[in-house]
Write a structure and sequence with these properties.
Layout (H helix, E strand, L loop, with lengths): L4 E6 L2 H14 L4 E7 L15 H9 L3 H8 L2 E3 L1 E5 L7 E5 L12 H10 L11 H7 L20 E3 L2 H13 L4 E4 L2 E6 L6 E6 L4 E3 L2 E4 L6 H6 L4 E3 L8 E7 L10 E6 L2 E7 L4 E7 L6 H11 L9 E4 L3 E3 L3 E2 L2 E3 L5 E2 L7 H14 L8 H27 L7 H8 L4 H13 L12 H10 L16 H20 L4 H7 L7
Parallel strand pairs: 1-2, 1-11, 2-7, 4-14, 11-20
Antiparallel strand pairs: 3-6, 4-5, 8-9, 9-10, 12-18, 13-16, 13-17, 14-15, 15-16, 18-21, 19-20
Helix pairs in contact: 1-6, 1-9, 9-10
Length: about 500
Amino acid sequence: MTDPVRVVIVGGGTAGWMTASALARFLPGVADVRLIESEEIGIVGVGEATLPHLRAFLQRLGIDEAEMMRATNATFKLGIDFRDFGKIGERYVHPFGAYGVDLAGVGFHHYWLRAREEGLRHSIEDYSLPIMAARANRFAFPPADGDFLATSYGWAYQFDATRLAPMLRGYSEARGVVRTEGRVTGVERNGENGDVTQLVLESGKRVAGDLFIDCSGFRALLIGGAMDAAWEDWSRWLPCDRAAALPTQSMPGAIEPYTRATAMGAGWRWHIPLQHRVGNGYVFSSSFLSEDAACDAILGAVEGTPLVDPRVLRFRAGRRRESWVGNVVSIGLASGFLEPLESTSIHLAQMAVMRLIELFPERQIDPADRAAFNATVDYEYDRVRDFLILHYHATTRDDSDFWNHVRTMELPDSLAGKLELWRESGRIEQYGEGLFLEPSWIAVYLGQGMMPARHDPRADNPSTPVLAKALDDISRTIRERVDAMPDHEAAIRAHGAWGTA
């Protein structure tokens, strides 16, 4: 048996402890894991909303959902409620689930488009169970053996990100991960191939390793410092580069099982309801708004009493051209950053962790594995980038310089092709895995008023009475099932997931 690979993770937080947890769980005896972090460096706490993929990650680790929710004061999340993005006064939900029922290989939205042309007045949201449940502030787990409608959705979490990392730390340390307190002040490298050999801490201590994982956040100590990996800047498409964040006290009334994103003059603000408080923030472009003005704007917009003054976070949209260079792998914010409009940050870290485990170098690093890792990361970041740009570009707003800029900016070719396909035929570019499959694109296209020129001609096959009855049956069934669901807070408590403040 070969000696285990000495893995050194730089940085804790969500990305660092997710990485440590996964390595300890899936590569016991193969990876000897040490994590270096400093208590003086805080966690970037904007990632309080997640995607359904996190559930699968936690399940694979063997972490009980209710236990996690209690520890992080989490609530359930069925989607994101977008307000004022297409036009001021309009809103739509991007759901974690499907619309209606596909028939004869034709997507449901084509039947809805046909019915709309024939005078149907119903919103496509009437045919989405997770949207209707979100609107009613209700939640229930999909049954394991239900029909398509009953099982057509998933769920994610809204939680206190500062509490997730400590929970994962306990999990990791119980499985052999060694934590070292301290700041990295120096990096020593192999003079021949440039690989990192050991790190020097502020105390003078040296930590040697075979594989180094940079989870140091925006500082990117290893990947951006020692390895000088190039950065691909996307600010020309995603100009928001600041966030003014603050928590508020919870307001009386129902806890919403969804995240709110409300467009503002120079960006948008988030509203994330947890069990014990509400997370808020204004994501904005410093080219169009000052930090002081953004802080004033979020203080004037929040509901409930602020618990602290706004804290301004600075960032830039983009990614490393190579997230794995030499024997250094970057995961999380050190690898790339895309604003939290679709709650993707934690997922992108999770995706990189699991891909690294698939390609883990037990003896020496294979350049083909390194290239495969980088290709996967690039593909995922590029796809998310295009989806985020769509939210800004697909608007008719002309009430500020910011919205005039994003509405008229030149698009990346990859997104321009997707838009042309939709506008001409109502079709979505097909891919089989990863983030943002067909329902997600449909939600934003239709939610922000982008109607295609035509629908799939196969949707003309049912007669008008048959189609009308089918649509009525679907919407009625969804209403009945939503009415039978408990309210959101009751569902959390029944699950044994209600925590303490």
